[in-house]
Amino acid sequence: MTAVVVPETSTEAIATGRLHVSQVLRRPVPLIALIVILLITVAVILAPLIAPYDPLAQDLDNILAGPSAAHLLGTDELGRDIYSRLLYGGQPALLGVLVASVVFAVFGLILGILAGYLGGWTDRVIGSVLDVLMSLPAIVVILAVLAIFSQSIVAAMFVLGLLSSANLARVTRSMCLALREELFVSAATVSGIGPVRIMFRHVLPSLIGLMVVQVALFAGIALAVQTGLGFLGLATPPPAPSWGGMVGEAAQTMSQSGFFLFVTGAVIAVMTLAFGLLGDGIRDLNADLKGRSSGASKILLHAADGGQPVSPEGIVVEVRDYSVAFSTPSGEKKIVDRISFEVERGQIFGIVGESGSGKTVTALSLLGLLPQNGTVTNGHAWLDGQDLATMSEKQYERIRGKEIGLVSQEPMVALDPLFTIGSQLSEVVSRIGDVPRREVRATVVALLESVKLPEPERLMQKYPHELSGGMVQRVAIAMALAGSPTLLLADEPTTALDVTVQAGILDLLRELRDSRGMTVLLVTHDLGVVAEICDSAIVMSQGRIVDSGSIDHIFYDSDHPYTRALIASTPTLEDGAA
Ligand SMILES: Nc1ncnc2c1ncn2[C@@H]1O[C@H](COP(=O)(O)OP(=O)(O)OP(=O)(O)O)[C@@H](O)[C@H]1O
């Protein structure tokens, strides 16, 4: 056997910010904001090279002049070139923002991680320090620092970063408390990995997304505070230029030249806005990524000898010697144990078994959606000849929704309560279905009609909570059909519904199979459902297949005691009548 490691933890992908170009282009605002920040920063750094004038050079014959070829942004009350002063004035401003942001990030993260991860007395001591930091009146402390350190903006911004880091530390601490409970952290501890390594290797990467957002938002605040101090004449003593100081000067001459105030205020406003939009945008991108890749599996595959599908024509899914295990604090737990089965194209194939038999884990692993601590430890699973067991997260992203659709037991979790049915389906249709913009609406209507929902146009205006359970499940099925998948994976699709609605959903699945030639893999604990709709099935118990075959075989020929017991425990109409 060959050991193949496919490293692909989604949290790391998020943390390290590995984004697809398409994801960035779909949300261009943070990218534009970043470009604006970089352009202004580079211009400010290059001030000695690109500024046309000495920022202190006066021309008293040419005061408060408007923009001209000689002075791009005009001149101030002493005839100094505003463009050159803005470039030089940005240096203390951006240096201050840099100092404040670095102090904010470093102290916030370190204090938060130590408190959240180590807990105990460390948490209590750090908690007290944070309480003190948060209770200090920031502006008074900053004024004192400016007085002591002869108006040093660096010292003032250091203190601002330190005092504000208490907020970041609190957020980081709460995240760490949650992360500490994650099984992958427990598993690392059980494997003998020390706390420092766990913090840097497992905890810190998960916090980077949060930190980038917080730092970007804080940078905007730091810039506003710094320009406020400059405006009050408390930082960067004149005549040296500073953005805040220039706003102060412009305000005094506002009645003679509104343009001077406009242009200095505009630069500060654009920069502050860009920091805010960058932070918000990264938060949205992060949320997108998490949503898309939550729970992606880390696959350690011991490939079986001769890893090639041997599927005869007409076999869509072939699973061979397939095992899944979870790492838990008490060691590795084998959940699926060397199962093998084949599903023919156009079949409705049941995976049935009692609770905890490993049905859902089997289904989720085929979708690459195992929990963090889950691993495919053996075997192969082919979908139309593609080996799912060796797929990277990127490859999975290409087939999820397009080649495999998922309908879950809890349809509500597939839908966002904040958006209408129409907007959610439209998003999925344009993203997965590759449908041109002008055809999206018609495609959504057609999808809703195909799952037998009446008045699709009206339904599109509604929110999930306005629909019944059966309707929500139909919407979830419509969503799963958006990419016209080859295989529809339905995990207990009727369990949460009442009996009459269940029958309707089963009829719908059968009709969809007939009309679309789709293959359905149905996970259920209910043999009644299997009898009603499936062509063949496997019966699972404790992670193994104990029986398999056509429905007739399972119900009439099987003499396996587990199958017989399952059949005996399935309620019948006669039972209900008794
Ligand atoms: N992240 C996990 N870590 C450890 N064990 C897990 C994890 N997820 C599931 N299990 C265990 O795997 C076993 C199989 O779970 P699975 O969800 O596949 O059962 P099931 O047959 O679908 O039953 P049910 O219908 O009750 O979900 C259970 O014993 C469950 O406790």
From TrEMBL:
Q: Where in the cell is it found?
A: Cell membrane; Membrane
Q: Which residues form the ABC transporter domain?
A: 319-567
* Record keywords, A-Z: ATP-binding, Cell inner membrane, Cell membrane, Membrane, Nucleotide-binding, Translocase, Transmembrane, Transmembrane helix, Transport
Q: Where are the transmembrane segments?
A: 31-51, 93-118, 130-163, 183-200, 207-234, 254-278
Entry superkingdom: Bacteria
Heme: present as a keyword of the record? Answer: no
The keyword Metal-binding belongs to this UniProt entry's keyword annotation: no
- First-listed, main subcellular location of the protein, grouped into a coarse class: membrane
Matches recorded under PROSITE patterns? ABC_TM1 (PS50928), ABC_TRANSPORTER_2 (PS50893)
What organism does the UniProt record list as the source? Answer: Subtercola frigoramans
Please state every residue range assigned to the domain named ABC transmembrane type-1: 94-279
Annotated membrane topology: Multi-pass membrane protein; Peripheral membrane protein
Matches recorded under Gene3D superfamilies: MetI-like, P-loop containing nucleotide triphosphate hydrolases
The record's comment on protein family reads: Belongs to the binding-protein-dependent transport system permease family. Belongs to the ABC transporter superfamily.
Q: What is this protein called?
A: Peptide/nickel transport system permease protein
